[in-house]
Amino acid sequence: MQGSAAAQEFAKLKELIDEIKIGMLTTQDEDGTLRSRPLQTRVVDDDGSLWFFTSRSSPKVAEASADGWRVNVSYARPDKMDFVSVSGRATLVDDRDKMKALWTKWVEVFFPRGLDDPDLALLRVDIEKAEYWDSPGTALGRAYAVAKALATGNKEATGDNVKLQR
User: Fold this and answer.
1) Domain segments of the chain: what residues?
2) DSSP string, 20-55
3) Residue 81 in this model has a pLDDT that exceeds 70
4) The domain defined by 3-165 carries CATH number 2.30.110.10
5) For residues 138 and 120, what is the distance between their CA atoms, to the nearest angstrom?
6) What is the C-alpha to C-alpha distance for residues 80 and 28, in angstroms, rounded to an integer?
7) Would you list the DSSP string of 88-154?
8) Is there a contact between 163 and 130 (Cβ–Cβ < 8 Å)?
9) Termini Cα distance of the chain
10) Which member of 82, 118, 133, 157 has the lowest number of beta carbons within 10 Å of its beta carbon?
């Protein structure tokens, strides 16, 4: 991303993902059906990559691989009216040092064999396009924004809608 505006937009995207944390990873099944499943985002790198733990044998890995590794990850925080959609390319990564750095007890719940599990891998999603909707921070601010939008017809008062492309 170039320029300070783009850097600020990416920083906001990263902040929203960090706060929401759980994304719905969408892949395409062999019959064309879209399938989504929740994954905890371990980190959003400054270079625009999302990192998740996964099983190599997971259907999401097979589906992503069969579709050229094209995926979408969406995030929602309806109580604050914040939403994120990320489109990108996934890659299966076997980097034990990176796994150690991203490992938490929460991950251990899903991978009880730990870092030595031969089925354990990282899924990296390199962001190609992203869009977010960010509403005013407080409930009072959101209520005011909706009232203003209703009164003026200016729906921009309800918050920001930003599209990013890498």
Assistant:
1) 3-165
2) H-EEEEEEE-TTS-EEEEEEE--EE-TTSEEEEEEE
3) yes
4) yes
5) 40
6) 29
7) EEEEEE--HHHHHHH--HHHHHH-TTGGG-TTEEEEEEEEEEEEEEE--SSHHHHHHHHHHHHHH--
8) yes
9) 6
10) 118
State mean pLDDT over 24-39.
96
pTM check: above 0.90: no
Cβ-based neighbours of 69, under 8 Å, separated by 6 or more:
89, 90, 91
Q: What is the pLDDT of residue 2?
A: 53
* Residue 160, token pair as written in the block: 């920001």
Looking at residue 31, its amino acid is D
Count other Cβ atoms within 10 Å, centred on residue 63.
21
Helix (H) or strand (E) holding 155: none
Residue 115 near residue 100 (C-beta atoms within 8 A): yes
User: What's the whole-number mean pLDDT along residues 24-44?
Assistant: 96
Give the tokens for residue 102. 């991203």
Provide the token pair at 119.
């089925």
DSSP state letter for 59:
H
Instruction: Give residue for tokens 């990282």.
Output: 122
Angstrom distance (rounded) from CA 70 to CA 116:
28
Judge contact between 24 and 37, C-beta under 8 A.
yes
Buried b (16+ CB within 10 A) or exposed e, 104-133: eeebeeebeeeeeeeebbbbbbbbeebbbb
